[in-house]
Design a protein that fits this description.
Elements: H1 2-19, E1 24-26, E2 30-37, E3 41-50, E4 56-63, E5 67-69, E6 76-77, E7 82-90, E8 96-106, E9 113-123, E10 130-133, E11 136-143, E12 148-156, E13 162-168, E14 173-176, E15 181-182, E16 187-194, E17 200-210, E18 217-227
Parallel strand pairs: 2-9, 11-18
Antiparallel strand pairs: 1-3, 3-7, 4-6, 4-8, 5-7, 8-9, 10-12, 12-16, 13-15, 13-17, 14-16, 17-18
């Protein structure tokens, strides 16, 4: 009788061992950080619990661009034990609605990869923005050696000063800037002086580098048909 009872106990324990497993259960798999200004770093925590019957082991944490997971204090959690996955989100260079993901790899056989999501909105309160008009200039038919000019307009649609940092162009071109700073909401008219140097079809590019938030380098195509006098 004792042998039979011992056998039953051993089999029961073996069966329990076979079915015992870890299980990672999150309080929330999506966290909304609301609205933040661009450049702000947000600290978030995803709370979880090992709701299984054996030790939960966190093997790896990977993140999408813009956020990083802080180093965990430990990687093993006993049944019933709670923990958090700390995540930092850096909003620098971002704008608009945001959706980023964190993938947690564990020994939870039913859900090896847990996918966490952080959402929110990044706003811009201080930025410079540029509008260039026109985006291409055709001097059309011109005569070799004579002087010509066209104008472009630079507008700042941002909230801080737009600064013109660098301008590059060919030797046929001279840029005449009345100023190198454009106030928010203001426009700057720039004269482009052109002196044809070689007969034939002329094509070149004017490049203007600024502190604009979205497009720091603006490129305008210049063209002309150069003839002898």
């Amino acid at each position: 009788m004792k042998k039979l009872l011992l056998t039953v106990i051993v089999i029961s324990l073996a069966a329990f061992t076979l079915i015992a497993d870890s299980k990672m259960t999150f309080k929330e798999t999506t966290v909304d950080f609301g609205k933040v200004d661009s450049g702000q770093v947000v600290d978030l925590n995803f709370e979880f619990e090992n709701s299984g019957d054996s030790v939960l082991i966190i093997k790896n944490i990977s993140t999408s661009c813009g956020c990083t997971a802080a180093k965990l204090e430990k990687k093993e959690y006993q049944p019933g034990e709670k923990g958090t996955i700390p995540v930092k989100f850096n909003s620098r260079g971002m704008q608009g609605k945001i959706s980023k993901f964190v993938t947690v790899t564990t020994n939870d056989k039913e859900n090896i990869y847990s996918r966490l999501q952080l959402t929110g909105e990044v706003t811009m309160s201080n930025f410079a923005e540029i509008e260039l008009s026109p985006d291409k200039i055709d001097f059309e038919k011109v005569t070799l050696g004579k002087d010509y000019s066209k104008k472009i307009e630079i507008k700042n649609t941002g909230t801080i000063d737009l600064r013109i940092i660098e301008v590059t162009h060919g030797p046929e071109i001279v840029m005449e800037f009345p100023d190198k700073t454009v106030k928010p909401g203001d426009k700057l008219t720039v004269n482009i002086a052109f002196k044809p140097m070689q007969e034939g079809r002329f094509t070149s590019f004017l490049k203007i580098r600024t502190n604009a938030y979205r497009q720091r380098l603006m490129i305008t195509r210049l063209s002309a048909e150069i003839e002898k006098e």
